[in-house]
What does this fold into?
Amino acid sequence: MSSFGAEVIWTRKEAEIFTDRRYSRGHVWRFDGGAEVPASSSPHVVPLPYSVEDNVDPEEAFVAALSSCHMLFFLHFASDAGVVVDQYADNAIGEMKIVAGKTMITKVTLRPKITYGDKAPNSELEADLHHRAHEACFLANSVKCAVLVDPV
It folds into this structure.
């Protein structure tokens, strides 16, 4: 089995009292390859100025991770099928709702727009590639919410 890790680092600023809940939610995600991502709570969850609007929030990262996983499997299966992909761009959307008293992302819709090389696959092959990618995606297999694929 594989394991995956990330280091999440938050530090209270000296002037922040903390117990009044008026502290920055800005923090850093650090990954094993050396990449650092500035992160924060979403301004939709914790109001400004305590969230950092320019930083990635966990909800956005969740949607991006599902999109990325699907894309990587799609590219793999397209390559195996001899289909040349020049660009894959997804404008994925996650929907958050309160269900049974719990706030959750209830649906993620992937909306990939794919540009192909000299010959695009027919619609049946493209649908099959998306289906296989969805079935193989580790993250889609790991979540309770619906993950839909709606190619553009």
About this structure: The CA atoms of residues 85 and 116 lie 4 Å apart. The radius of gyration is 19 Å. The chain has a mean pLDDT of 96.
